[in-house]
Amino acid sequence: MKIWNSVILLAIMLATITVSAQRDIPADDQQLLVEIYKELVEYKTTASEQNNTRAVEGMAAWLQAAGFAAEDIFIGGALPHKGNLVVRYRGTGSRQPIILMAHIDVVEAERDDWNLDPFVLNEDEDYFYGRGTLDDKAMAAIFTANLVRFKREGYVPNRDIVVALTSDEETGGSNGINWLLANQPGLIRGDLAINEGGYGLLQDGQPLATTIQIAEKIFATFQVTARNPGGHSSLPRDDNAIYDLAVALLKIRDFDFPVQLNDVMRVSFERQAEINSGQRAEDFRALLQEPIPQDSLGRLSAEAAINAQLRTTAVATLLDGGHASNALAQTAVATVNVRMLPGSDPQDVLRTLTRVVDNSELEVVYRGGGRMSEPSPLTEEIMNAVESVTESMWPGVTVMPTMSTGATDGAKMRIAGIPTYGVSGIFVDRNDMRIHGQDERLLKKSLYEGYDFLYRLAQELSQ
């Protein structure tokens, strides 16, 4: 009952936003964007804080000031501090809505680990710095600013444009997109959704390609446990839980799951061959041959970002073992994180890991993970729109369908039957991605270009 009371309170929270929370809307579009971006970055929306609802209230205040009616703005969630914002920009209704998604929660960032305060929007001549400047408050700010922009211009789309800012992507989505799908499905139903997961790639400062994510790998957690009677550390023996576990982990490290190319990655590798030259271009073309030449496969597999798109991967991420410094370990446990290709069966992965470990004395178990989602269809509507806007802004730049190796809320939307595409028009250096890392940053030019790209893309898809 307490949870549902909280939901009701959140749903009517807009009625309690005071006049003092209203924003003055700048006349300049870029100034509008930066003010929203700054405000959003400076809300500390980590899992350890309780600022998420304050952040979406702040975004709602911008929209109220722009003239959005209260009935078109919803705030709600399972937890009082994790409210989600859903805003509807009304069109003629001749087509089903499009959903524009971004999450406003961010991973932790310690001040001592950064050169700048991670929860202040810092800037130099070229970059904005701060936690979430790229993942994912840039898109959240852009979508909010573009709604204000549409309202100011009196734009009339042929379908409703729905913006959903969610509060729980980084910790699984149960209080974010999953809650909305389960409790307010009518708010975020549409023909398609635009989400994070696709960025433009810069090489030597020049646009190389822009990606459109139409599939993603699914995480799964496995555990390997070694047990032993133990004993006194002054009497070591060959049988040792820690050593047995270490041997098992080295076997997992040295094992490669088989290459499996889905249709998404075939198109992606074709286009990567187009934007590269020399041996590298030939290697990408070789991936489309049957069988794949081993020399080309070896060169590309040596790159972590390419290898992860070729196959399911497994890596040890957590260790726990022993109970005293002067005792032989009785238990040693490792968590192995697996990123499965779409269509994979966790039980098949379990059987594979058990075979690789090859030690009947060790226990290998599946601890759970995300649900499988099929790739979104690569329709003419979405490809023509993305390619048209890309060509108008960056002539000659390739649009490259891709599969994300990490997880986003897109998989949850696909499972719900809503085709979802990760595309942003935000360009980043392919060799300097600081998502979840120290001194996260985004080029100022990339923020402004992403603003225009997503403005034009929303119009392409709604007129």
Instruction: Provide the CATH topology of the largest domain.
Output: Aminopeptidase
Summed over residues and divided by their number, the pLDDT gives a mean of 93
> How many strand elements?
19
Give the fraction of residues assigned to helices.
25-40%
- Name the structural class: alpha/beta
Low-confidence stretches: 1-20
Radius of gyration: 24 Å
Distance N to C terminus: 44 Å
Number of helices: 14
Shape: globular
Largest sheet, order of strands side by side? 1-2-6-3-7-17
- Strand fraction equals 15-25%
Number of domains: 2
CATH C-level category of the largest domain: Alpha Beta
CATH architecture group name of the largest domain: 3-Layer(aba) Sandwich
Describe the structure.
The chain has 463 residues and is of the alpha/beta class. The chain folds into 2 domains: 2-214 and 374-460, Aminopeptidase (3-Layer(aba) Sandwich); 216-369, Alpha-Beta Plaits (2-Layer Sandwich), CATH 3.30.70. Helices cover 35% and strands 22% of the residues. The protein has 14 helices and 19 strands. The chain has helices spanning 2-11, 29-41, 52-66, 137-153, 177-183, 241-254, 263-275, 278-286, 294-301, 304-310, 346-357, 380-393, 410-415, 444-460, and strands spanning 73-76, 84-89, 98-103, 122-123, 127-129, 161-166, 192-195, 200-203, 206-216, 218-227, 231-232, 313-321, 327-328, 331-340, 363-369, 398-404, 420-422, 427-429, 441-443. A 6-stranded mixed sheet has the order 1-2-6-3-7-17. Helix 3 packs parallel to helix 4. The two termini are 44 Å apart. Residues 1-20 have low confidence and may be disordered.
